[in-house]
């Protein structure tokens, strides 16, 4: 998190007292913009944390926030995934994974009505009772939580907003009459598969969204739907928790679900949470049922349309002030009853059951002695059962981990991790196999991410992420092969089959893919001659020796690009973004100079879904590029308490490090001697004419300035072989960075100043040259034309613009006439 606290950084809490904070509950139906408002409010603060109910939703919000402020400013923390940059300002987490020992200015918790959830409710209740931001705290959710929320947090200010669009009952539909842009909702895997296969037969195919999907696989499926490659979605109730989808209609194929203990009908409020995904912003949405499901009762329909539901009457609770003296005392403290009438103790929890089982094991009990070891055992028992095994099987796995970690200096070594992950590497299985493998990988990703549990943890975290990515890509392909008819689904084909990974040493396709390959490569097949010709061309190419570098990114490259780390992307002075040396996008104007956008430039055969994912990645990269450029000024801003220094730095940042003294006279007049010393130590040079942040005028920073300003002001540029800028045909162009001056042309003066060439009369003059010329013009009547690179007949105008006009009284009597 960086060396020492900095302004805006999240900081560890040092006190246990509740933090005084403005408490706000934003309650109402779906599509009221609650999460959108919370994200915007968080970004108005210097630091913040947002807790979300699903890993998939946390990843979606992380993508959105990092695209806005850059990945260097945002941490993502879920049970299995931790992306924590050096000094994050904002934390996007699942509610269970929210770091409770950090102080941030803003805290938000989404879907607070889940306090009434039998298994997870106690975590949301704990956040409602104790999670607080230094300045402001928001709880978001359904209006059904209002009575409980106000009872448990009496100072809560409740705000409501109307739904932005109307939600209307459409009645019953068949798959043949289902309108486009629809989601069909079911609650069992077999039912989801059945519906998706029927949609493939009747309507060309569907994307599939399951809670068990990894973020990578889910994003790929949703992007395929969002881009129009398929017009239908089959999903579980995972879509009900705020996942943003462009849906016009939601059709329920089932109205009941198994909740872990029994199969029960969905409550009207639960149906509304899912149905409310239809309609976006001001566009109306509809909901209904899929034949042969019976229609909803009229009173339930009315409740959903009018957003009226019975309020929650209880919140689940579990004591958080635990006694780790012994296993018995820990269990006793977990069972402590609540002291508020609105709270009810959790009847059953997987982690408590695991602690009871392992506490009865003599081998584990012998090692778990003393508070430190008991706390460690409790952390082990809280490893989620992602595989949804029988409890006894899950407890066996936990025991193996416990016996390794509870020993003195115990850690899981490389052999232990290798044995678990190596058996999950095959990507040849079907959908069910891959989902099961991914669930196991999530377990070991969770374990590797826990501090101190695994030797060489960073390496094993990377190995687990890479394995999940490979399984996710294979799963996405299986879903396409099984549920999408590429010839009928949309104008563009879906994603092409993945290429075998040469470094994996195995085929990347499963049984379905092999069947397609066998058809395509049959000697009597229609493509036999084409394949033979291709083989000849490949052989000729190999004989010809090394080939030229690739000039484009294909589908597989686009998938890698969407998840690529910042360091693998490059931005040149012309605003071109490259990945592995290949142009993949370009900077374009955003709403502000410091908030650029990015336009993707990929092959036509890259799927529209992948292009959507790459757009987000390039946008985040562009914002990170700005953060890197402005980092010296922002670090200086965070290190100072002087309002005058902060005001000056704010102006310098928005002009990319070049500012006229005349533009900052009010701030300069307030600076004290210590302020001048602090600015000088940070590389801010205050001259007679200009104020220059020298770190922004060196090397890569200079190139970034040209790229940002060129994109914002739409300046045409070209690159020399030495990667320097040169003039290019068109109405506007830049000089080389080493030039002393240039004619401004039609480029606006503020653009010239932002690239370090402030305009004085007829010339845009490089900042250091302008400062030098001003100093000479202040003390002598000697010509400055040769210094600034202007003609003699332009000098008077340059001097006048600098405020140093050469008067006739001071002019030399034998001065040559001005040039014409």
Can you tell me about this structure?
This protein is an alpha/beta fold and 820 residues long. The protein folds into 5 domains: 11-160, P-loop containing nucleotide triphosphate hydrolases (Rossmann fold), CATH 3.40.50.300; 169-306, P-loop containing nucleotide triphosphate hydrolases (Rossmann fold), CATH 3.40.50; 315-475, no CATH class; 564-714, no CATH class; 734-820, no CATH class. Strands 5-4-6-3-8-9-2-10 form an 8-stranded mixed sheet, sandwiched between helices. The longest helix is centred in the C-terminal third of the chain and has 32 residues, at 608-639. The protein is globular, with a radius of gyration of 31 Å. The model is unreliable at 1-8, 12-19, 491-542, 544-548, 718-732 and 807-820 (pLDDT under 50).
